Every structure is written in C-alpha cells, then in structure tokens.
C-alpha cells in the first residue's frame, strides 16, 4: 500500500475522494442488483395450477373441459381449480381432456 501524507489537509482530501468513490460504487452496486433481480423475476415463470377448467364463450361461460394445469391443449379461457373442484366438475358431466386425462390422474377412472 502506498504511504499516506502526514498532514491533515491532504489526508482530508484523500478521505473526501474515497467517500465519493465509495458512494459511486454503492450506487452502481444497487443498480446492478436491481437489474439482476428484475431479470430473475422475468425469467422465472409462475407455477401452473394443478387443474384448470376451460370455459366457453358467451353468457355464463359454461365449462367446456377439464385439464391438468400444464396441459398443452387447454384453451385461452380457463380458470384454476382445486382437485376437489375438478372432481366435482367432472362428476357434473364436463368432459375431461383426451390428451392429459385429468379423470385418470384424479383417480376417477382407470
């Protein structure tokens, strides 16, 4: 490490300079951490619900079919269901998806 000057005026100058540099470094760190956190929020998709019901078009939006939450064939109009709600909807006559077979996964059919 280099030698520091012995006189107070030059030492004050060095301390002032270092405080300013520390402030700049702390602000740059805060910006970098915020950028990293924003990237992490964008790159982590939310967990899909376990079960969904696809809804139709029109008044009342009647249910069309029941799907597993990660089914590739579910439509754009859907809402999440609990396992109990999915069983109830399936028992009520709403057909299960033929691709993800939620009735089998819920133990309603073998």
List the keywords.
14% strand, 3 helices, 2 domains, alpha+beta, 45% helix
What's the quick description here?
This protein has 3 helices and 3 strands; from the N terminus they run αβββαα.
Query: Based on DSSP secondary structure assignment, what is the total number of beta strands?
Result: 3
The N- and C-terminal alpha carbons lie at a distance of 76 Å
Largest sheet, in brief, is:
3 strands, antiparallel
Spatial strand arrangement across the major sheet: 2-1-3
Please, could you describe this protein's structure?
This protein has 110 residues and is an alpha+beta fold. The protein has helices at residues 8-43, 83-91, 102-105; strands spanning 51-55, 63-68, 78-81. The protein is built from 3 helices and 3 strands, in the order αβββαα. It folds into 2 domains: 1-44; 51-105, no CATH class. A hairpin with a 7-residue loop joins strand 1 and strand 2. Helix content is 45%, strand content 14%. The protein is rod-shaped and about 90 Å long. The protein has a 3-stranded antiparallel β-sheet with strand order 2-1-3.
Topology at a glance:
Elements: H1 8-43, E1 51-55, E2 63-68, E3 78-81, H2 83-91, H3 102-105
